[in-house]
Amino acid sequence: MAIGEALAQLKKGEMVVVFDSESxxxxxxxxxxxxxxxxxxxxxxxxxxGGLICVxxxxxxxxKMGLPFFTDIFERGAPELKELTCRKTAYGDKPxxxxxxxxxxxxxxxxxxxxxxxxxxxxxVVRERKGDFMKEFYVPGHIFLLIGRGIENRRGHTxxxxxxxxxxxxxxxxxxxxxxxxxxxxxxxxxxxxxxxxGLVFIEGKELTG
Amino acid sequence: MAIGEALAQLKKGEMVVVFDSESxxxxxxxxxxxxxxxxxxxxxxxxxxGGLICVxxxxxxxxKMGLPFFTDIFERGAPELKELTCRKTAYGDKPxxxxxxxxxxxxxxxxxxxxxxxxxxxxxVVRERKGDFMKEFYVPGHIFLLIGRGIENRRGHTxxxxxxxxxxxxxxxxxxxxxxxxxxxxxxxxxxxxxxxxGLVFIEGKELTG
Lengths: 210, 210
Description:
Two copies of one chain form a homodimer.
Chain A (H helix, E strand, L loop, with lengths): L1 H10 L4 E4 L8 E6 L5 H11 E9 H6 L5 H8 L19 E7 L8 H17 L4 H4 E12 L8 H11 L6 E6 L8 H10 L3 E4 H5 L1
Parallel strand pairs in A: 1-7, 3-5
Antiparallel strand pairs in A: 1-2, 2-6, 3-6, 4-5
């Protein structure tokens, strides 16, 4: 039932809180569809979530846009540093990170207005003009592009976000940000209380994968 | 006089507020020496500054550690994407960005404890055991490593931070984070008020370069 509510909220442009699982990161992310991004929402993410503001796109979209994983570029571009490459994180997955991007129309790229612009334009490019990605964006920028491997292959927030988008009928990009507590990830019960206090739906990864 | 006070504060492990200039980013950063990092300071940066939590090291240190600029790796590793490379930002400089790193002992890399650990260890490696960088860290991570080009070549927050460290006799790494206001960079007068309210020294780039 919570999934149905989460999809309804996402379609309306609202945020949802998604906890992955105790056996993985044990982390809750705030997320929403990038087509509904606004500077105000970016302010909420940085003030109330506190992690990195990232954007997830699917593997097929990434391939059409010519976008690789960060580690692929890194290994080709800096073979002398290959010892640095993360093959597997402490929680067992390969990283989802591709590239840090900015839209070419931003000034510095970091204020709410700039990050919202980068996210809005990325969502448009993914949905409407994939071939224009390279003309419209630059690297290195301030928004962290993640590529989903599909929920059958990886159960990270990247894949959970894209699975929600798919079920909600929202193609395009999903914005996500880790929720932090003092010192550590925001505990699950605090993430649930945050959701309740703010009228947001809270779901767990197992509701999407189980 | 403010510079002398800033150096004294940095030596004590305190933060300072540094505004670059109206003709560049027009942005204030909170910064401090990485040897004094703590989870509490990371919490302050994410809650009260709001930008990316970055760490600056000097060019000579970066060379000894084998660390290139992001754009160098990107152009070698993804020549088919070279159109994406930022040669010059909207405010006129080349980016200072090198690599996003985590220390190998972190769990996810993003909570205050993890980011403080990555920063603390990086500072130690820069000061004491540069050759161990590749053994102790991995990419992609959650702390953004910046390389300073020297204040005679670039007057960004990266170079201002490292110039302050040099004058304070603090070798090692400097932590910095952009201060954001609603929608846009925190206006200079608000950054000055923030500094005053929190007992921090406020300085401008021209005091270091003029």
